[in-house]
Amino acid sequence: MADKDAAWAPDILGGAFEYRHIDHPDDYDGTVRSTLVRRLPQPKPAKAVLYVHGFSDYFFQSEMAERFVEAGYGFYAVDLRKYGRSLLPGQTMFRVRDIHEYFPDIDSAIALIKAEGIDSIVLLGHSTGGLTSALYMASNPAPEIRALVLNSPFLDWNLPPLQKAAVPLLSAIGRFFPGLSVRQKPDSGYAETLHRELGGEWDYRRDWKPDVLPDVDAGWVRAIDRAQRELRRGHIRVPVLLLHSAESVRPGEPKEKYGCADAILDVESIGRYGRALGDEVTEVTVDGGLHDLVLSARPVRERVYTDILRWLAALPQSPSPTASQR
Asked: Are 125 and 150 in contact (CB under 8 A)?
C-alpha cells in the first residue's frame, strides 16, 4: 500500500507533473504496483479530481489536468496495475481476473490525496476506467468522493448480436481457462484520429497505448462481464455526470466518421445503462465527440470541459457518504 515517506519524482510529462509508485500485495502474476501522478498546484486546493484511465491506456492528457487546475482543483491520475507507468518487466499488459482488483489502486490514491489535506474528491473515469469507477462507487465508495464523472464508460459490450450472446459462455470458460486468448478485430482507425504521427493532435507512448487494441483473454472477458452485471444491480449515491458522444462508428462507415464519433463503444448502450446508475444522473450528449471526449477536436473538447466544470460548480455542498455506507 501507499508509503507516506516514499518520494515523488519528476514525471515523463515534465513541467509540474510528478509521480510515485505504490506497492500492493502480490497477485496471481506476482509483484504488482499502481502509480499516482499529480500536477503540482499553486495555491494548494481544497478539492481535487482523481482520473482513472481506460483499457489499453494510461494517463497522458496533460491538457485535462491543466483545465481542472485552472478551475481551482488539484489534479491526480492513477495508472492502474499492469498499465503504463505501473507495468513491471515480465507482466502481461492489462491482465485482470476481477475488476475489484483495481479498488486498492483507487483507495491508495485517495489516501495519498487525503494526506495532502484534500477531503473533497471528484472521481473521473474513462471507458473501462469508467466501469471500474462506477462499480467502485456502487459497492465500496470512499467517503471523500463527492461526485462521479464518466467519460464514455464501458457499461455494455459493443458487439454484433451473435458475439454478444456468446459473452456469458466465454465468461464461464474464463473461470476455468482464464488465459485462453480472445482475438479482437484489428482496427487502427481510432488511433489514426489521435496520435500526431498518424495525423492526429496528440503525443503519447504507443507501447503503452497501442494503435490496435491488443488481444485479451477469457479471464479479462469474465472480469468485465461480471463487473457490468454487478453494476446493474448496484446504486450510486453521489451525483453522476454521464458524458458520451452523440454517435458511434458503425461497420462499413467511411474513415472520416472516426474523427467525430465513438469508434469503440455503442453510445446508445452507454446512455441506457448509464441513466440507471443512480438517482442523480445528468446525461450530456456530445456532438462530434470521440471515444475519449477530451481528445476530440478543440471546439468539441472545450464544450466538454465547460459542461463538466459548470456541472461541478452547480453541485450542492452536501456531506459525503458516511463510513457506514462503505
From this structure: yes
Please tell me the distance from the alpha carbon of residue 163 to that of residue 75, in angstroms, as a whole number.
39
Percent of the chain with pLDDT over 90: 87
pLDDT digits (tens, 9 = 90+) for 134-155: 999 999 899 999 999 999 999 9
What is the SS3 string spanning the chain?
CCCCCCCCEECCCCCCEEEEEEEEEEECCEEEEEEEEEECCCCCCCCEEEEECCCCCCCCCHHHHHHHHHCCCEEEEEECCCCHHHCCCCCCCCCCCCHHHHHHHHHHHHHHHHHCCCCCEEEEEECHHHHHHHHHHHHCCCCCEEEEEEECCCCCCCCCHHHHHCHHHHHHHHHHCCCCEECCCCCCCCHHHCEHHHCCCECCCCCCCCCCCCCEEHHHHHHHHHHHHHHHCCCECCCEEEEEECCECCCCCCHHHHHCCECCCCHHHHHHHHCCCECCEEEEEECCCCCCHHHCCHHHHHHHHHHHHHHHHHCCCCCCCCHHHC
Q: Output phi, psi for 309, to 5 deg.
A: -70, -35
Question: Alpha carbon of 132 to those of 1, 43, 143, 153: distances in Å?
Answer: 19, 31, 17, 9
Number of CB atoms found within 10 A of residue 77's CB: 30
For the segment 233-250, what is each residue's pLDDT rounded down to a tens digit?
999 999 999 999 999 998
pLDDT tens-place string over residues 89-119: 999 999 999 999 999 999 999 999 999 999 9
Between CA 150 and CA 154 the distance in angstroms is 10
pLDDT mean across residues, the chain: 94
Q: What is the pTM of this model?
A: 0.95
Residue 298 predicted with pLDDT over 50: yes
